[in-house]
Write the structure tokens for this entry.
Amino acid sequence: QVQLVESGGGLVQTGGSLRLSCAASGRTFSSYDMGWFRQAPGKEREFVAHITRSGINTYYADSVKGRFTISRDNAKNTMYLQMNSLKPEDTAVYYCAARREYYTGTYYLAPTYAYWGQGTQVTVSS
């Protein structure tokens, strides 16, 4: 089992940058594929980015591709989301998630992740 804690959210102007962190407990962080999701008020939770347990492969939602970068440091049990060129539509609560089981091609599906953090608010002002 793994516990996840996000940090790094805040208020930023359009075009600004933020870096989110997701700290994981336990000594098996490298056994988990990780993802970032977000949920805006009145909307469903949506996929943002995914990184495989080795860190070699990454996947992004079309809406953030080229602006966001997901990464991880298995030695520090931490995952990151570097967010650049932020837009008001990026405003949401951002969640990190982990899954140990491997399901081909399903990285964008929230139900395939067993563990979730509490979320961190990102607000982009226009």
Remarks:
- The chain has a mean pLDDT of 96.
- The chain is about 0% helix and 45% strand.
- The longest strand covers residues 92-99.
- The radius of gyration is 13 Å.
